[in-house]
Amino acid sequence: MSAEKQGAQHVSSRLMRESLMDRRLIASTDSPVRPILPNLNVIQIGGLSIVDRGHKALLPLLDEIVSNQESHAQVIGVGPGVRGRHILSVGLDLGLPTGALATLGAKSSAQNAYMVSCLLASHGFVYLEAPFIVQLLPAMLAAARGAVFNGVPPYDLWEHPPALGKLPPHGSDAGSYLVGEVFGARAIILLKDVDGLYTADPKTHPDARFIPEISAVDLMRMKLETLPIEPVVLELLTRARLATSVRIINGLVPGNLSRALKGEPIGTRIHA
Amino acid sequence: MPDTTEDAMLTDLGRRLISGSLSDAAILRATEATPNVPILPWVNVVKIGGQSIMDRGRSAVFPVTDEIVANLHRHKMILGTGAGTRARHVYSMAIDLGLPIGVLTVLGTAVAWQNAQMLQYLLAKHGIAFLEPEGFASLPHYLMERGAVICQGMPPYKLWEANPGVGRIPPQRTDTGCFLIAEVFGARKMIYVKDEDGLYTADPKKDAKATHIPRISVQELLKRDLDDLIVERAVLELMLNARNVKEIQFVNGLKPGQLTAALDGEPVGTVIFNAGAGPGDSA
Q: Which of A1, A12, A238 is closest, CB to CB, to B228?
């Protein structure tokens, strides 16, 4: 609350003695952010949509990642898939809180990420846990040929209780988006088993319309029953500084990833 | 999608989780109908302020550590630390250099860590350990054996901290990190030790007519839409969705006895409580 703190030993700075909860002070810090790795492409491989389908879906996609290795810096996030759903089910049944569910579920995506990293290892990709993303990602990308990381962010026990239900709101879409945002990545590409966003689920609604491009705010206003992306990513996009869009593409269709990396308007682009 | 729904061991909810979309509101609602099992219902989370306590040095810190030691055999405590003036300096520098929120969070975490280490040096002779987030599975053991543990208060979001709507200061700092520890463990109390008696209608150091607010609902506090707050705004927002923590308390660490009184359940300082009707109620 108060600004003046008698008796405290201060290091002089612009924020010294000020309340960091003060709106005016917070607003006064608004200024541009520099991208740390502007050439980076963050590619998220869906757990349920891609990895759980096994080699038939995954291997062609990894071949395509390798074929783009010379032209694009790629870090690969991976989602948890069906084992993540299973442990949510058991954990909920036992009455565990959201933070515990998040900690448990993150291990399923770590397994998937580790398997993907093994399949890319001969091409020089490394598997990086969160502390190594913090310390080593830039060095790894300079020295190694790419990196694989756990798409689920390391929120663990500190995951937010959601407004509705108990499921952890920050999954692998959110984690991959946040990696793209903090490094100021060139592109964030989410690989799923659908062509992008529709006005309804095309599997059950043949009259569903395809949406090639939409703003996060407009999409939130549509209040669609289900989304092919975690809803929290839309909120994060409204506060984007550097990563002002994500692209959802069908990772089961060969060539889609290469086209997205070239910047072609494929799939659905959701922007800030 | 591969057919994995035939496992007879799954509950009905489990089958829906595996075959359905996790953004489906009906499925999310169904997850509410599961029990909330508190993991450590007897633990108290106590946050020791950075700028308000630690930066003052021994004149403020020693009385607080004395009070913690006196309560070791009476109350189990997870002691989280704030960051304070060195965080403000490093935030200022990093903002000037154009670095993103996630990097500021990594930098701020180091300051809260330093304060936690200092607190641990002072309490080491009483057998009090410091735990990193990765070591939290050992918490129950240390709490049972020694009555308290120390951790740094920042949530472990690191580069994954989300941007605030306005400005470039990480919105989820040590108030938030400690609150979420209390929430996930279903703690008995969440107590913030700062350098004021709690919440006032205005800044008592600047406005002589300011009156103390002993108790206020989070809904009322958010409605007042104050420019400045006693606690990170993120904590108030999270309180609306919290399943376990229904109130948080603010005490003056410069006044001996307030922390003990709060641990004993007395209404000292200011209590902010959730007046919502039920779990997940954000009305």
A: A1
Q: What CATH superfamily classification does B42-273 receive? A: Acetylglutamate kinase-like (3.40.1160.10)
A67 in any annotated domain: yes
- Per-window interface: B 175-214 vs A, CB < 8 A: 177, 180-181, 183-184, 186, 195-196, 199-200, 203-206
User: pLDDT per residue over A1-14, tens digit each?
Assistant: 444 445 777 888 88
Six token digits for residue B187 = 């703690």
pTM of the full predicted structure? Answer: 0.90
Q: What residues of chain A score a pLDDT lower than 70?
A: 1-6, 144
Nearest Cα residue to B252 out of B206, B179, B200, B176: B200
* Helix (H), strand (E), coil (C) string for chain A: CCCCCCCCCCCCCCCCCCCCCCHHHHHHCCCCCCCCCCCEEEEEECCCCCHHHCHHHHHHHHHHHHHCCCCCEEEEEECCCHHHHHHHHHHHHCCCCHHHHHHHHHHHHHHHHHHHHHHHHHHCEEEECHHHHHHHHHHHHHHCCEEEEECCCCCHHHCCCCCCCCCCCCCHHHHHHHHHHHHCCCEEEEEECCCCEECCCCCCCCCCCEECEEEHHHHHHHCCCCCCCCHHHHHHHHCCCCCCEEEEEECCCCCHHHHHHCCCCCCEEEEC
Supply the pLDDT for residue B233.
95
How distant, in Å, are the alpha carbons of B54, B57, B60, B163 from that of A7? 11, 9, 9, 33
Q: Where are the domains of chain B?
A: 42-273
The verdict on residue A136 lying in a domain is yes
CATH of the domain at A80: 3.40.1160.10
In this predicted structure, the answer to whether residue B280 has a pLDDT above a threshold of 70 is no
**Does A142 reside within a domain?**
yes
Q: What is the DSSP string of B129-168?
A: EE--GGGGGGHHHHHHHHSEEEEESS-TTGGGPPPPSSSS
CA nearest to B11 within chain A: A89
Per-residue confidence (pLDDT) for residue A144, from 0 to 100: 65
How much is the pLDDT for A4? 46
Please list every residue in chain A whose beta carbon sits closer than 8 Å to the beta carbon of residue B86. Answer: 11
Residues in B closer than 8 angstroms to A164, CB to CB, are 25, 28-29, 32, 280
Query: Domain tally for chain A?
Result: 1
Confirm whether A22 is domain-assigned: no
d(CA B219, CA B241): 12
Identify the pLDDT of residue B1.
47
- Find the angle CA(B25)-CA(B28)-CA(B29) to the nearest 5 degrees: 85
Nearest to A7 among B36, B56, B184 (CB): B56
Model confidence over B169-192: pLDDT tens digits?
A: 999 999 999 999 999 999 999 999
Report ipTM for this prediction: 0.84
Range of the domain at A120: 36-271
pLDDT on residue A5: 46
